[in-house]
Amino acid sequence: MSGGPRSRAVNLTDGPLLKPLFVLSVPIVLTNLLQVAYNLADTFWVGRLGGAAVSAISFSWAIVFLIITLAAGFTVAGTVLVAQNKGAGNLDRISAVAGQTIAFVIGLSIVFSIVGYLFAPWLLAAVGATPGTTVYELSVTYTRTMFLGIPFVFGFFIFQSLLQGWGDTKTPLYLMFLGVVLNVVLDPFLILGFQDNLLFELMGLSALEATLYAATGFDGFGVQGAAIATIASRGVGAGIAFGLLLSGRVGIHLALGDFIPTRKTIEQIFRIGAPASIEMSTQSLGITILTALVALAGAEAVAAYGIGTRVTSLVVLPALGLARGTETVVGQNLGAKQPDRARRAVFASVAITALVLTTLSAAIYLNAASIIGVFITGSDADVVIEIGAEYLRIVGATYAFLGMFHVIQGAYRGSGSTRLAMIFGVIGLIVLRIPPAYGLLAWADLGATGVWYGIALANVVMVILSGAYFLRGTWTEGIVTRERRAVASRGED
């Protein structure tokens, strides 16, 4: 194990805090934006096939995204264990931790892949796809193809998490960019083949060249082609990622023996990762339940809520990036026995988040209707815009609180207190949101407006509760510190 001549790791345990925090977090934000680009490219080219095709991938992603969040929680264990051991100077321990985390997550992904493939028809019917319809058949094909490639998707996620714990977020960004480029190039060919005029125009082909391409007779794989393109691009990224880890060129250097599981490390991975998985899946579950509640107010309200949540997901990206960066800073500094520095990093991230999101909230409040209007056209557009603008003005006013909550959650995860993060996640995203939203919608007869106020109220209260516990300081004992104490205790015995 060595830093390696090409390691891009940021020094997080010495010197100023703000610069390394930014250097660590900005690539994470950009990586998340590139993930959005992945989805937009798929949606754009699948949209050329018609509404049924778009509906098919929408049903599929309700399932695939849930599975991804369940398994992605275990990648948090890789971030935490690598960060804390690096901070503690246990460089020889990092290889074993990283290798076993990869083995565990890939093994888990294979299980999910098999189960998801077998049960895809039933799962799609459970989320509302009607068996026997074209949409249902397309959904089954797309979903099963995606599940076959789940190990490749998880392979990139675990690489990203391990490098994040090491302090390098630039290398995963470069690989994500490569993946997006490959996906954008492959999508039109695999989805549409050589039969689409827009594709020919983008390629700059003459009429004769276009005719020759079309003569090949390849008309693509349709919706399944989008899944194949995603798997192929992720597979290339995962292959390069593991090559870098085995070569040691990114700081972490793995040998084949590092992939052999030991009971102690696997127990740590599960103890840290299982609560993180529940916390991450709680967010998607909360959105699903709220969508069902909003449906009681009508189809226009559901459309407005869908657009509003997309805007929210984009606005909070800076906070999510800082939250992941905070995980690493907290982890490394707790490993280095510097809890005060870890605490200062959290305060800095919270302050930056509050400033950025308050500014964005003000801009969104003043332009709410125009923002919603970008996403909707048609006969019912005016109603959707009115309801959606109300969502942005009410919920958007609390974006700073939502962002601060994500940062504090990142601090808990970085310390290894993923169970604590899970508890606050369930309380904040389910308990504090769902009952008030339903009460204001149904009992107070406020309709969708009641749901918006319920969400806004929860955003404020949950950061107050998690922040108050954070100030107690009981979260500052990291995993490595507990291991040291356990070893010392056994020595005394």
Q: State the separation between the terminal residues, measured CA to CA.
A: 33 Å
Number of helices: 20
Largest sheet data: none
Q: How many domains would you count in the coordinates?
A: 2
Strand content: under 5%
The number of distinct β-strands equals: 0
What's the helix and strand layout?
Layout: H1 18-47, H2 51-87, H3 91-126, H4 134-148, H5 150-166, H6 170-192, H7 197-203, H8 207-214, H9 223-247, H10 263-295, H11 299-315, H12 317-335, H13 339-366, H14 368-374, H15 381-395, H16 399-414, H17 418-431, H18 434-443, H19 448-472, H20 479-492
Helix pairs in contact: 1-6, 1-12, 2-3, 2-4, 2-5, 2-10, 2-12, 3-4, 3-5, 4-9, 5-9, 6-9, 10-11, 10-17, 10-18, 11-15, 12-13, 12-16, 13-15, 13-16, 14-15, 15-19, 16-17, 16-19, 17-19, 18-19
Structural commentary:
By secondary structure, the protein is mainly alpha-helical. The chain folds into two domains: 1-261, no CATH class; 275-493, no CATH class. It has 20 helices and no strands. α1 (18-47) runs parallel beside α6 and α13 (339-366) runs antiparallel to α16. The protein starts with 17 loop residues before the first helix and ends with a helix.
Q: What's the gist of this structure?
A:
This protein is mainly α. Helices cover 80% and strands 0% of the residues.
List keywords for this structure.
2 domains; disordered N terminus; mainly alpha; 0% strand
